[in-house]
Design a protein that fits this description.
Strands 1, 2, 3, 4, 5, 6, 7 and 8 form an 8-stranded mixed beta sheet that branches. The relative contact order is 0.08. The N and C termini lie far apart (about 115 Å). By secondary structure, the chain is of the alpha/beta class. The chain has a domain of about 180 residues: 2-enoyl-CoA Hydratase, Chain A, domain 1, CATH 3.90.226. It contains 10 helices and 8 strands. The radius of gyration is 39 Å and the shape is elongated.
Protein backbone atom coordinates (compact mmCIF):
# COMPACT_ATOMS: atom_id res chain seq x y z
CA UNK A 1 0.00 0.00 0.00
CA UNK A 2 1.62 3.22 -1.14
CA UNK A 3 1.59 6.24 1.10
CA UNK A 4 0.87 9.63 -0.42
CA UNK A 5 3.91 11.81 0.22
CA UNK A 6 3.48 15.10 2.03
CA UNK A 7 4.42 18.21 0.09
CA UNK A 8 6.92 20.58 1.59
CA UNK A 9 4.31 23.29 1.11
CA UNK A 10 0.53 23.56 1.29
CA UNK A 11 -1.61 26.34 -0.10
CA UNK A 12 -5.17 26.65 1.23
CA UNK A 13 -7.65 29.15 -0.22
CA UNK A 14 -10.25 30.28 2.31
CA UNK A 15 -12.11 32.70 0.07
CA UNK A 16 -10.95 36.16 1.19
CA UNK A 17 -7.69 34.82 2.60
CA UNK A 18 -5.18 32.11 1.82
CA UNK A 19 -2.83 30.15 4.06
CA UNK A 20 0.51 29.08 2.65
CA UNK A 21 2.53 26.57 4.67
CA UNK A 22 6.23 26.18 3.86
CA UNK A 23 7.23 23.35 6.16
CA UNK A 24 10.34 21.89 4.58
CA UNK A 25 13.12 22.61 2.12
CA UNK A 26 12.66 25.17 -0.64
CA UNK A 27 13.67 23.16 -3.69
CA UNK A 28 14.86 23.99 -7.17
CA UNK A 29 14.62 20.42 -8.47
CA UNK A 30 11.56 18.53 -7.32
CA UNK A 31 11.49 14.90 -6.22
CA UNK A 32 7.73 14.17 -6.27
CA UNK A 33 8.21 10.68 -4.84
CA UNK A 34 9.57 12.32 -1.69
CA UNK A 35 6.80 14.93 -1.55
CA UNK A 36 8.89 17.83 -2.85
CA UNK A 37 7.69 20.49 -5.26
CA UNK A 38 9.53 23.26 -7.01
CA UNK A 39 9.07 26.83 -5.82
CA UNK A 40 7.63 27.65 -9.24
CA UNK A 41 4.48 25.75 -8.22
CA UNK A 42 3.94 28.14 -5.32
CA UNK A 43 4.68 31.15 -7.48
CA UNK A 44 2.18 30.19 -10.18
CA UNK A 45 -0.60 29.52 -7.68
CA UNK A 46 0.03 32.72 -5.75
CA UNK A 47 -0.12 34.84 -8.87
CA UNK A 48 -3.51 33.34 -9.76
CA UNK A 49 -5.07 33.94 -6.33
CA UNK A 50 -7.56 36.76 -5.74
CA UNK A 51 -7.61 37.20 -1.96
CA UNK A 52 -7.27 40.03 0.54
CA UNK A 53 -4.78 38.37 2.87
CA UNK A 54 -2.13 35.69 2.45
CA UNK A 55 -0.79 34.12 5.64
CA UNK A 56 2.57 32.48 5.03
CA UNK A 57 3.51 29.98 7.76
CA UNK A 58 7.22 29.06 7.70
CA UNK A 59 9.19 26.25 9.29
CA UNK A 60 12.11 25.63 6.98
CA UNK A 61 15.88 25.29 6.98
CA UNK A 62 15.83 27.13 3.64
CA UNK A 63 17.10 25.78 0.35
CA UNK A 64 17.76 27.18 -3.09
CA UNK A 65 18.48 30.92 -3.12
CA UNK A 66 16.83 31.50 -6.49
CA UNK A 67 13.62 29.77 -5.41
CA UNK A 68 13.53 31.75 -2.16
CA UNK A 69 14.03 35.06 -3.96
CA UNK A 70 11.29 34.20 -6.49
CA UNK A 71 8.77 33.44 -3.73
CA UNK A 72 9.83 36.60 -1.87
CA UNK A 73 9.34 38.83 -4.91
CA UNK A 74 5.98 37.34 -5.92
CA UNK A 75 4.67 37.80 -2.38
CA UNK A 76 5.85 41.42 -2.32
CA UNK A 77 4.19 42.16 -5.67
CA UNK A 78 0.88 40.58 -4.69
CA UNK A 79 -2.00 42.99 -4.04
CA UNK A 80 -3.05 41.10 -0.90
CA UNK A 81 -1.76 41.91 2.54
CA UNK A 82 1.07 39.48 3.26
CA UNK A 83 1.48 38.14 6.81
CA UNK A 84 4.56 35.96 7.26
CA UNK A 85 4.61 33.83 10.40
CA UNK A 86 7.68 32.00 11.71
CA UNK A 87 6.25 28.86 13.31
CA UNK A 88 9.62 27.22 13.98
CA UNK A 89 12.78 27.96 12.00
CA UNK A 90 13.05 30.44 9.15
CA UNK A 91 16.61 29.86 8.01
CA UNK A 92 18.65 30.97 5.03
CA UNK A 93 16.38 31.32 1.97
CA UNK A 94 13.31 30.82 4.18
CA UNK A 95 14.32 33.91 6.19
CA UNK A 96 14.28 35.88 2.93
CA UNK A 97 10.71 34.71 2.27
CA UNK A 98 9.85 35.83 5.81
CA UNK A 99 10.95 39.39 4.91
CA UNK A 100 8.18 39.63 2.29
CA UNK A 101 5.50 40.17 4.93
CA UNK A 102 3.74 43.45 5.52
CA UNK A 103 3.42 41.98 9.00
CA UNK A 104 6.22 39.66 10.06
CA UNK A 105 5.22 37.64 13.09
CA UNK A 106 7.56 35.57 15.26
CA UNK A 107 6.13 32.90 17.50
CA UNK A 108 7.60 33.10 21.04
CA UNK A 109 9.45 29.82 20.47
CA UNK A 110 10.89 30.41 17.01
CA UNK A 111 14.16 31.47 15.40
CA UNK A 112 15.49 33.21 12.33
CA UNK A 113 18.88 32.32 10.91
CA UNK A 114 20.70 34.43 8.34
CA UNK A 115 24.00 33.66 6.66
CA UNK A 116 25.93 34.10 3.44
CA UNK A 117 25.09 32.04 0.39
CA UNK A 118 27.41 29.07 -0.14
CA UNK A 119 28.25 26.64 -2.88
CA UNK A 120 30.59 23.83 -3.86
CA UNK A 121 33.18 24.67 -6.51
CA UNK A 122 36.02 23.11 -8.44
CA UNK A 123 38.43 24.39 -11.05
CA UNK A 124 41.60 26.39 -11.39
CA UNK A 125 42.58 29.44 -9.32
CA UNK A 126 40.89 31.91 -11.67
CA UNK A 127 37.66 29.91 -11.70
CA UNK A 128 37.62 29.63 -7.91
CA UNK A 129 38.20 33.37 -7.53
CA UNK A 130 35.31 34.04 -9.90
CA UNK A 131 33.11 31.66 -7.92
CA UNK A 132 33.93 33.57 -4.73
CA UNK A 133 33.00 36.86 -6.41
CA UNK A 134 29.79 35.37 -7.79
CA UNK A 135 28.70 34.02 -4.44
CA UNK A 136 29.20 37.46 -2.86
CA UNK A 137 26.95 38.95 -5.55
CA UNK A 138 24.31 36.28 -4.91
CA UNK A 139 24.50 36.99 -1.17
CA UNK A 140 23.90 40.68 -1.84
CA UNK A 141 20.44 39.86 -3.23
CA UNK A 142 19.47 38.52 0.20
CA UNK A 143 21.06 41.56 1.86
CA UNK A 144 18.75 43.79 -0.19
CA UNK A 145 15.72 41.87 1.07
CA UNK A 146 16.84 42.30 4.68
CA UNK A 147 17.58 46.00 4.12
CA UNK A 148 14.00 46.66 3.01
CA UNK A 149 12.75 46.08 6.54
CA UNK A 150 15.77 46.32 8.84
CA UNK A 151 16.39 49.12 11.31
CA UNK A 152 20.11 48.31 11.41
CA UNK A 153 22.74 49.25 8.83
CA UNK A 154 23.88 47.18 5.87
CA UNK A 155 27.25 46.68 7.56
CA UNK A 156 25.53 45.29 10.65
CA UNK A 157 23.39 42.98 8.52
CA UNK A 158 26.49 41.65 6.75
CA UNK A 159 28.25 41.11 10.08
CA UNK A 160 25.31 38.99 11.25
CA UNK A 161 25.41 37.03 8.01
CA UNK A 162 29.17 36.49 8.22
CA UNK A 163 28.67 35.04 11.70
CA UNK A 164 25.77 32.81 10.55
CA UNK A 165 23.56 34.25 13.26
CA UNK A 166 20.55 32.65 14.96
CA UNK A 167 18.11 35.39 15.97
CA UNK A 168 15.63 35.25 18.85
CA UNK A 169 12.15 36.80 18.45
CA UNK A 170 12.94 39.86 20.60
CA UNK A 171 16.12 40.51 18.61
CA UNK A 172 14.30 40.00 15.31
CA UNK A 173 11.90 42.79 16.34
CA UNK A 174 14.77 44.98 17.55
CA UNK A 175 16.59 44.58 14.21
CA UNK A 176 13.40 45.28 12.24
CA UNK A 177 13.31 41.81 10.69
CA UNK A 178 10.03 41.11 12.50
CA UNK A 179 7.20 43.49 13.31
CA UNK A 180 5.82 41.63 16.31
CA UNK A 181 5.81 38.55 18.52
CA UNK A 182 2.62 36.54 18.67
CA UNK A 183 2.38 36.18 22.45
CA UNK A 184 -1.08 35.26 23.75
CA UNK A 185 0.26 35.04 27.31
CA UNK A 186 -0.38 38.75 27.75
CA UNK A 187 -4.11 38.01 28.16
CA UNK A 188 -5.06 38.66 31.79
CA UNK A 189 -7.55 35.78 31.69
CA UNK A 190 -4.82 33.28 30.92
CA UNK A 191 -3.38 31.26 33.85
CA UNK A 192 -0.02 32.54 35.06
CA UNK A 193 2.88 30.11 35.43
CA UNK A 194 5.16 32.39 37.43
CA UNK A 195 4.18 33.45 40.96
CA UNK A 196 7.15 35.83 41.02
CA UNK A 197 5.87 37.45 37.82
CA UNK A 198 2.43 38.01 39.36
CA UNK A 199 4.00 39.55 42.48
CA UNK A 200 6.15 41.89 40.38
CA UNK A 201 3.11 42.96 38.36
CA UNK A 202 1.30 43.84 41.58
CA UNK A 203 4.29 45.74 42.96
CA UNK A 204 4.81 47.73 39.77
CA UNK A 205 1.13 48.49 39.17
CA UNK A 206 0.30 52.24 39.19
CA UNK A 207 -1.82 51.95 42.36
CA UNK A 208 1.12 50.41 44.19
CA UNK A 209 3.41 53.35 43.58
CA UNK A 210 4.13 55.26 46.78
CA UNK A 211 2.67 58.73 46.97
CA UNK A 212 5.05 61.64 47.19
CA UNK A 213 4.53 63.49 50.44
CA UNK A 214 5.73 66.94 51.52
CA UNK A 215 7.00 67.56 55.07
CA UNK A 216 7.27 71.06 56.55
CA UNK A 217 10.06 71.18 59.16
CA UNK A 218 11.29 74.45 60.71
CA UNK A 219 15.05 74.56 61.33
CA UNK A 220 16.97 77.24 63.30
CA UNK A 221 20.06 77.65 61.14
CA UNK A 222 22.09 79.53 63.82
CA UNK A 223 21.40 76.90 66.46
CA UNK A 224 22.27 74.10 64.05
CA UNK A 225 25.57 75.83 63.15
CA UNK A 226 26.52 76.19 66.86
CA UNK A 227 25.82 72.49 67.47
CA UNK A 228 27.98 71.47 64.53
CA UNK A 229 30.85 73.75 65.65
CA UNK A 230 30.73 72.33 69.19
CA UNK A 231 30.88 68.77 67.87
CA UNK A 232 33.86 69.59 65.64
CA UNK A 233 35.76 71.35 68.47
CA UNK A 234 35.24 68.41 70.79
CA UNK A 235 36.48 65.98 68.13
CA UNK A 236 39.63 68.07 67.54
CA UNK A 237 40.57 68.57 71.25
CA UNK A 238 43.51 66.24 72.15
CA UNK A 239 43.09 63.96 75.19
CA UNK A 240 46.87 63.89 75.95
CA UNK A 241 49.15 66.93 76.33
CA UNK A 242 52.04 67.43 73.94
CA UNK A 243 54.59 67.09 76.80
CA UNK A 244 53.15 63.76 77.97
CA UNK A 245 53.10 62.46 74.42
CA UNK A 246 56.78 63.41 73.86
CA UNK A 247 57.85 61.74 77.12
CA UNK A 248 56.07 58.52 76.10
CA UNK A 249 57.88 58.46 72.75
CA UNK A 250 61.28 59.09 74.39
CA UNK A 251 60.69 56.33 76.95
CA UNK A 252 59.88 53.87 74.18
CA UNK A 253 62.97 54.73 72.13
CA UNK A 254 65.44 54.60 75.07
CA UNK A 255 64.42 51.19 76.37
CA UNK A 256 67.27 48.67 76.58
CA UNK A 257 67.43 46.53 73.48
CA UNK A 258 66.89 42.87 74.37
CA UNK A 259 70.03 40.74 74.36
CA UNK A 260 70.70 38.95 71.12
CA UNK A 261 69.95 35.22 71.47
CA UNK A 262 72.94 32.92 71.70
CA UNK A 263 73.93 31.32 68.43
CA UNK A 264 73.87 27.58 68.20
CA UNK A 265 74.84 24.96 65.72
CA UNK A 266 76.58 25.95 62.45
CA UNK A 267 76.17 29.70 63.12
CA UNK A 268 78.25 29.50 66.35
CA UNK A 269 80.81 27.25 64.68
CA UNK A 270 81.50 29.62 61.79
CA UNK A 271 81.56 32.68 64.07
CA UNK A 272 84.26 31.07 66.23
CA UNK A 273 86.27 30.09 63.14
CA UNK A 274 86.36 33.71 62.00
CA UNK A 275 87.59 35.18 65.28
Amino acid sequence: MSKTPTKYYQLVNNGTSADLYIFGDICAWAWPEYGEQSGVTIVNQLKAMDVDTINVHINSYGGDVAEGLAIYNVLREHKAQIVTICDGFACSAASVVFMAGDRRVMQPASLLMIHNAWTVAMGNAAELRKTADDIETITQASVEAYKKVATISEEEIKALMDAETWILPKDAVAYGFATEIDDDDNDDDEPKQSAFGVIMQKLTAPEAVLETREFNVEVDIDELAEQIAAKMQKAMTPTVSAEAFAEKIYETLTKTTPARPKKTGWAEYFERRTK
